[in-house]
Structure formats: structure tokens, C-alpha cells
Amino acid sequence: MTASIAAQSRRRMVARAELAGSAVCFGLMAILARKLTLPGMGFTAGHLAVLRFVVGALVSLAAFGLIPGLYRPTNYRLLVTRGLSGGAVVVLYFYALAHIPAGEAGILYNVFPVIAVVISLALFKERPTIHLWLAILAASLGVVLVLSQGHLGLGLGRGELAALAAAVFAATSANAIRAARHTENAATIFFFFCMAGLPVVLPFALSPWPDRLGAWGLAVLMSLLAFGGQMLMSEAYGTLAVSEAAVWLQLLPIVQYLLAVPLLGEQATGAGLAGVLITVAGVAYGTVLGHRQRT
Q: Is 282 inside a domain boundary?
């Protein structure tokens, strides 16, 4: 029994590290997406969404060829549902990044872990501890503090609305991944994410594509970072409940906010940095005290 508890504890620590790595990958992906949709680069949100799915599908097919038995779908209905909702997330989020600063887009989009927890209460009958609720609240307040900076200029324009819509679909996807991980591996889930999501985003990529080689290199790198972030997140959902994952996913807008300062020239303030510290403290609190003790 003690060995089993120790092994489970190790798996949880690995899953938390996977979510932290996922936040870094998605943060860098968002920075590159924002840069690629700036005037002069030539990419639109639809272009980037299509490229992300195509590159992800090709990498997945290569992995399936190298690792026999890696592709083993079981619940096709759930896999396709996850792919369709994920396609909506990608195109809406890239659209938001094309119209508002990366820091603001990331913070608005990242209300999805809280929405996902509410959905998980009905779907999985998960019962987060009071410590976990406090951790989610503290981390969310830290994100709001970052958002309160004047330079973010929160409003209700089309970019902001797109980010919030992406958050709703992302919450649905998070619960679909959690449900699928009972029968599917992360690689199979990601492949269906790409194949089912591609038809959703194709109509948004009909404008002329850019021809600059350097921009294409950055776009492929962005797609590979998205692949890494998605795989790490799917692996983590095989171990952590939606509610605990929600605490760690609050790191995503913080990472994105911090990376946007040196890479995009967006400004940081004292209030923003205080929000970063509060969010990290909330994540640490939820990690230490948030899970239920097992007898």
C-alpha cells in the first residue's frame, strides 16, 4: 500500500511538471502567433490554425510509424468531439492574438480552467477540496491583477470576445481530454484533435498565403511548440483531476505575460509582477494542500 501511494505521488509530480512544461510551450506558441499576424508577416489566424493542425498530424503519423501500437483509438465519438471543439479553440484564439496584445489574449483565454472545473463537477462528480478552491481563487486573482494594468486596456471588442469564446470551447475540450484519457493515449487524442479540427479551420485560411521563408520557419516552430504543449497537457490529464489541473493551468497566462515583455516589447508593471507572484503562490498552495488525502 505504501509503495502504491508513493508511486501515485510520483505520477502526480510528473503530471504537474508536464503542465508547467505545457504552459511554457503554449506561451511561446502564443508569442510567435502574435508576431506572425503582425502587419508585414503575411499570416492570418486561419493560416496558423491550418498549419498547426497539418504539422501536428504529420508528426503524429511519423510517431505512429516508428512506435507500433501507439495508434489505438477506442471511443471515436469522444475523440471527434474533442477535435471539433479544439478546432474552434485554435481559430478563435489565433484570431484574438491577431487583434489584441498577447498578454490580454492569454489572460482572457485562461478563464477556461475555472469553467472546466464547473463542467467537471457535473460530468465526473469531482469534489475539489476547500484548499483547491482557495488555490484556484488565489491564482485567478493574481491573473486579474495582471489584467488590471492600464496598458492592457480590457474592453469588449472582437478580439476580447474571440478569446472568451475560445475559453468556453477550451473548457469543453479539457473535460473531453480528461474523459478520453480513461481509454485513449495522448498521441491518439492529439491526432484526432488535428484531423477533426482541420475542417473547422480550413474556411478561415482561403486568403493568399505568405511566401517569406523566414516567416514560414517561425510558423513551423510555432506548430511544433503547440504539439509539445498539447501532448504534455493530455498526458497530465491522465493523472490529475480537472480541478487540480486548473490550478496549474493558471501558469499559462503568467508565462505568456512574462515572455511578451522581452519578445514583443509589451510593458510590465509593479501590479503585473505582483499578480505573477500571487498566481505562483496560489499554484504552490494548491499543489501542497489541494489533493484529498487517501486512507
A: no
